[in-house]
Design brief:
Blueprint lengths: L2 H15 L1 H10 L2 E2 L2 E2 L3 E3 L2 E3 L12 E3 L2 E3 L10 E11 L4 E10 L2 E6 L9 E4 L5 E5 L1 E3 L15 H7 L2 E6 L8 H12 L3 E7 H5 L5 H8 L5 H7 L4 H6 L5 E4 L8 H14 L2 E5 L3 H9 L6 E4 L11 H12 L4 E6 H4 L13 H12 L5 E3 L17 H10 L5 H6 L3 H11 L3 H5 L11 E5 L4 E7 L2 E5 L2 E2 L9 E3 L2 E3 L15
Parallel strand pairs: 7-10, 12-13, 13-14, 14-15, 15-16, 16-17, 17-18, 18-19
Antiparallel strand pairs: 1-2, 3-4, 5-6, 7-8, 8-9, 11-20, 20-21, 21-22, 22-23, 24-25
């Protein structure tokens, strides 16, 4: 074994032996008795206590009495990420900065924030790390038909740096927001929402005008109960959905149904997404838009399965040039190995067309589509997100800030435009003051996410979810993020009003 390898092994062994100490140090920060302790590098972090030393934060018994050192430390409510190399495309930041978080929001991002007694401090000065805004995925399956295999998509996604995930469940019903909303109430570490299947919307008795009123919260209860559903929970929560999904693998909408969906989506701010795999179907859906917004889901999946991959990819890029059309590419397809080996591989010529579209800004949004080994899946995997961003930079397709923007500032801007709500760009996709403290720490060497913060809580660390943050996430609506939907409370208690 080489000397370097021995040192690495020793470092890892030492890290495991000192796991409790290191965890406490990460949690409580560098200020011990008002002074910053010396630092020693371990893995991706700089832990604040010296090797073999214990910070004075552990409860014990001294002289026959309970000793509680935390009693003397009054928490300030601040969490400081110190010394990380920050890339924040929206605010034009690239360099070493500290980030102060108070509660769920970022208080400030600047050079050398001085910790105060009671602050929690995480040191991120390892040169392999990049601190970025939390990833936003406009297309990541969770809580829908793909969760048949024994996977934990909510927890895996957050471990891979995703902080906001919009689930495109085209096969679901109007009940989907109640189902997934209840999971939020029970405790998820990630902000989530769901698209409604287009067929379930056009299948109700209500007129187009009544459906528009329903999703805008302006339809009376009697009409809803007669023409939408008989389930009051469904009727109350369905308008909280983020959008509508067309999927040619589930159903082929008639021209009249497509017109209805476009009218509903364009007049409510719901995001209308079409499943992009058969280029002829996609062309038909886009041509039916009449200038109304349409988003092409996982557009790189157009290759191969329904025609010539180069011809199909070229057509999708041409469609995406239209001003009312947006598209998203899948991170797995853009990596050097061209996709998941247990899924589908993108031919090199089609991949080059995608690279050119990214470089020219025709496509500005990247997604993973969810976990590769879920049932029937094969388009992508969230663990490829960080690797894709780094490789786009290495290949010269996009500089790293522009690549990061494809999963942060760009989707936030796109969603703000489609929904007509500016809270997206105020709260998400950047690290400025007032933004939600959704933060992804990337490791350039391993090409994986090292740490993910959601709502100011550490939700994952080195591919492990953190139990404390199981309730960190919320429900994403067009109008803002809800901490709770109330669905998970109905079976147990009510609230006094």
């Amino acid at each position: 074994m080489s000397e370097k390898k021995k040192k690495k092994e020793l470092s890892r062994r030492e890290f495991i032996q000192r796991g409790a100490t290191a965890g406490a140090a990460v949690a409580m920060g560098a200020l011990l008795k008002g002074k910053e302790a010396s630092a020693g590098e371990k893995g991706g972090f700089v832990y604040p206590n010296p090797v073999g030393g214990l910070p004075d934060i552990l409860a014990t018994v001294k002289n026959g009495r309970l000793y509680d050192p935390l009693k003397t430390i009054k928490p300030t409510g601040r969490l400081i990420l110190k010394g990380g190399y920050v890339i924040d495309p929206k605010n034009g930041l690239e360099g070493v900065y500290d980030i102060a978080v108070r509660g769920k929001f970022i208080e400030e991002c600047r050079s050398d924030i001085k910790p105060e007694r009671g602050d929690r401090v995480i040191h991120l000065s390892n040169p392999d790390l990049v601190v970025a805004p939390g990833f936003i995925e406009t297309h990541l399956h969770m809580g829908d038909i793909f969760e048949i295999a024994p996977v934990r998509p909510h927890f895996e996604a957050v471990a891979h740096g995703v902080t906001v995930a919009l689930s495109p469940g085209a096969g679901n019903t109007l009940m989907a927001p109640a189902f997934l909303g209840a999971e939020v109430d029970r405790g998820l570490p990630i902000h989530v929402s769901v698209y409604l299947g287009a067929a379930c919307i056009v299948g109700t008795r209500a007129s187009v005008g009544e459906k528009i009123a329903f999703f805008n919260g302006a339809l009376d209860d009697e009409t809803i109960g007669q023409k939408i559903t008989r389930n009051r929970i469904t009727n109350t929560t369905a308008p909280l959905a983020i959008g509508i999904k067309d999927h040619m693998g589930h159903f082929i909408l008639s021209d009249e149904a497509l017109e209805e969906i476009y009218e509903i989506a364009s007049r409510t701010g719901l995001v209308f997404m079409s499943h992009t795999q058969d280029h002829r179907h996609t062309e038909r859906v886009v041509n039916a838009s009449k200038g109304r917004p349409i988003h092409l889901g996982h557009a790189t999946a157009i290759f191969g399965s329904h025609g010539d991959p180069v011809e199909a990819m070229s057509l999708i890029v041409e469609l995406a040039k239209r001003p009312h059309v947006t598209a998203e590419f899948v991170t797995s397809h853009l990596r050097y190995y061209r996709g998941g080996w247990d899924g589908i591989l993108m031919p090199p010529k089609a991949q080059q067309i995608a690279y050119d579209a990214l470089e020219k800004g025709i496509c500005k949004v990247l997604v993973s589509d969810g976990q590769m080994y879920s049932t029937m899946k094969g388009f992508g995997d969230s663990r490829d997100n960080v690797g894709c961003l780094i490789e786009l930079d290495e290949m010269g397709v996009l500089p790293l800030p522009k690549a990061i923007a494809c999963m942060t500032a760009n989707p936030a801007q796109m969603l703000a435009k489609k929904t007509g709500q500016d809270w997206w760009t105020k709260e998400l996709g950047h690290l400025g003051k007032g933004a939600r403290a959704n933060i992804t720490v990337m490791n350039k060497k391993s090409k994986l996410a090292t740490m993910t913060l959601v709502n100011g809580m550490v939700a994952s660390l080195e591919d492990r979810d953190i139990r404390e943050a199981h309730g960190a996430g919320g429900w994403v609506t067009r109008f803002g993020i809800l901490d709770r939907t109330g669905v998970g409370d109905l079976a147990i208690w009510g609230y006094a009003t």
